[in-house]
Design a protein that fits this description.
Layout (H helix, E strand, L loop, with lengths): L1 H7 L6 H32 L1 H32 L2 E2 L31 H6 L3 H10 L1 H8 L3 E2 L3 H35 L1 H12 L7 E3 L4 H6 L5 H14 L7 H15 L8 H16 L4 H12 L7 H5 L1 H28 L2 E3 L17 H28 L9 H29 L13 H36 L1
Antiparallel strand pairs: 1-2, 3-4
Length: 478
């Protein structure tokens, strides 16, 4: 055994083998790096959203490399961390082979599982065989304990984190592409509106509010019954024709009259797309709170609880709530006009306000969409990771009656968010009290930011100069 270890050691490995392996790894790494570089240059010219997604993939690759380093450094420490076998008898993700059915969390007789099996679903025989091969596992066996995590479990956990991060970026980019394609169709509305405005074509006569298409489609009367009907209509509306031409025209005019009255030809569609691309950077990122939710979901993956099945409904419920709220914001704009006017001369103008959104914060909608997309990516990536790693017959797959609905819900969430919720978010969140910095073009943004930085520096220099003069004056007085 010692001779075999000596042969496997690096100091007894032929240099041509080491050089050849290193050359192949370096060549593959360089090819991948240059490929990503050229892909980034192409996407930056043609599609800013996909370029941002690519940057996030690079960040995830860097994070993966750091995780790999940590796993390598602490691998021996983790394997030498021993725990009592009784600690591995609770909250098992799969029922032990040959064990009778028992309620979740209740220990059963038979061979014990390690915590590695909770995270990775590794069989008992596989863990023991790997544990006996390692010095850490041998040390734990001598003490009558089991290792905290095996080498194989660390490797599988490492892969899962990477798969989840990449899946989140992929599904977010897919949502952005599909949603952006629908929003792009609104550009013809923008061009038609500007063309009519340039030709002086527009409604000039007095019309009752009930005859205006925007009010007619959204207004359901006053009172408790009509408000309940309004919420129901908003819920149903998100599934078909979520934004009509009259909606776009009215909200566009409301934004212009509130934030840039002096520029009636303002390109609202371009501004909206720029704002959406800026928000996409937030959607495609992975924050610490999202990783905490993953840890919680992994913790609740106990045999018999069917946690992943029930958790698949969480992003769907949130998505429906967000879509309904966004549709209701449009309805509220119509109700405000109907409450103040019986007839309108010329164009219908609505008043954007943060009061229409939850807690007066339109950004809450963005955070919810971010959470929804991440959780949906988690559900789908976990399913395919289990399928590729452990096979269709794995206990993680659960029964077909639980598995199929999870996949269907994942697809429904992806499509609904792409074709309805994201376009709604893009236009409705512009109905807040404030506009975003994307209202300026890139050159103006850079100029304003540069001017602000210079102003801060000049202000700092003036304060420092005045302070020095006061101190010098104090010395003269003294």
């Amino acid at each position: 055994m010692a001779a075999a270890d000596e042969v496997a050691a690096l100091q007894f490995t032929p240099t041509w083998i080491v050089a050849a392996v290193c050359s192949v790894l370096v060549l593959i790494s360089l090819a991948a790096e240059r490929g990503l570089h050229h892909l980034g240059k192409t996407l930056k010219k043609n599609n800013q959203s996909l370029y941002e997604a690519l940057l996030k993939v690079k960040e995830e690759l860097m994070l993966l490399g750091f995780i790999s380093l940590l796993l390598t450094v602490f691998q021996v420490t983790i394997q030498r961390t021993c725990i009592p076998p009784s600690w591995t008898e609770y909250m098992l993700p799969c029922q032990r082979p040959g064990a009778s059915h028992q309620p979740p969390g209740v220990a059963a007789t038979g061979p014990r599982f390690t915590v590695a099996e909770i995270l990775g679903g590794i069989s008992r025989a596989r863990v023991l065989s790997e544990g006996e091969a390692g010095a850490g596992a041998g040390l734990c066996q001598k003490e009558g304990k089991v290792p905290l995590l095996s080498e194989e479990a660390l490797h599988q956990l490492h892969i899962f984190i990477f798969v989840l991060a990449v899946a989140h970026v992929f599904f977010s980019a897919t949502t952005m592409l599909l949603g952006g394609a629908k929003i792009h169709k609104w550009k013809q509305w923008e061009e038609e509106i500007q063309k009519n405005h340039a030709a002086g074509i527009g409604p000039k006569k007095v019309l009752p509010v009930q005859q205006l298409s925007f009010i007619r489609e959204r207004y359901k009367g006053f009172g408790k019954d009509s408000m309940a009907l309004c919420w129901l209509h908003s819920f149903i509306k998100q599934f078909y024709g979520s934004v009509a031409k009259s909606d776009y025209n009215t909200m566009r005019l409301g934004f212009i009259m509130t934030h840039c009255r002096g520029n009636p030809n303002f390109d609202f569609h371009r501004y909206m797309m720029r704002a959406l691309e800026s928000d996409f950077k937030k959607i495609v990122s992975t924050s610490w709170s999202l990783w905490v939710s993953v840890v919680i979901f992994l913790l609740l993956n106990v045999n018999g609880w069917h946690a992943y099945f029930w958790m698949a409904f969480l992003p769907l419920v949130l998505l429906l709530a967000v879509g309904t709220k966004l549709e209701h914001v449009i309805a509220q704009l119509a109700y405000d006009v109907a409450a103040r006017h019986t007839a309108i001369e010329g164009d219908l103008v609505v008043n954007p306000s943060d009061e229409h959104f939850w807690f007066g914060q339109p950004r809450i909608v963005l955070h919810l969409i971010h959470f929804i997309l991440f959780q949906n990516a988690f559900q789908l990536s976990f399913f395919f990771w289990i399928l590729m790693t452990y096979g269709f017959e794995s206990c993680f797959m659960d029964h077909v009656g639980f598995m199929v609905p999870r996949l269907v819900l994942g697809v429904v969430i992806q499509l609904l968010c792409s074709y309805s919720t994201l376009p709604l978010y893009a236009i409705v969140t512009q109905m807040g009290s404030y506009y975003k910095k994307e209202i300026f073009n890139e050159h103006v943004q850079q100029g304003v930011i540069g001017w602000a930085e210079k102003a801060k520096k000049r202000s700092g220099l003036k304060e420092g100069h005045s302070t020095a003069e006061s101190m010098h004056g104090g010395d003269d007085v003294a």
